[in-house]
Amino acid sequence: MSTDEESENAAEPQDEVQEAFEPLEAVEITPNSLGGALHLVATPIGNLADITLRALEVLKNVDLIACEDTRHSGRLLSHHGIRARLVSLNEHNEARRIPELIAHLQAGGSVALISDAGMPTVSDPGQRLVQSVVAAGLKVESLPGPSAVLTALAASGLPTVPFYFGGFLPHKKGQREKELLAALQREATSLYFESPYRLVDTLAMIAAAKPDHRVVVARELTKKFEEFQRGPAQQVLSHYQARTPKGEITLVIAPAELPKWITW
Fold it and tell me: What is the pTM of this model?
């Protein structure tokens, strides 16, 4: 990695590359205690060392690993010395892939599901697969691990209970403004994923409604250039108007009423 922060996610946004769908060929089943179950495995959100021993053990021993992008996940597995059969499972092919994976599980095989980062199915593909496995009467095991939502929440300095996670903010301004106004009135801390290309516009919407409302921008969590910007919305907006945001962002918005112990 370059030591220059300007290299960090400097490219313009591009359309997601879609891997060609290849039907799953017969896969040899390895008899072990993992068979007949779908294993949801959380993977690092940045730092590749943030993976559990149990996760590594499961990834080493399952027959198949279903992932969003085989190239991206291949780098993670290579880093940890794991050789595994990878198959793509994303929003474009999930419906076609599910019957193949169900058949493999019903035959006594094992499958791990991972996303590009964090907990699979949470703002990532896999929800339909999990539902189908449950409906088929098969076992689902969830291995805890990295989560951008909980990492940002825990370090935000805002109340952690209750909290609301809304996934990615809408692209359309009208829908995004409606969601942000709801967050400002909510009696819970609200968290969203946001693109760096829309962050300034999003912060401007919050500042226009409530300039003194506390927000936190958690950027590039667990990575080299990790950053937390905390403060009134107008202050955080000014920071990113002067310095173009880059990288992956989790936006944390304070509840409508702050407890007395919040002093920043």
Answer: 0.86
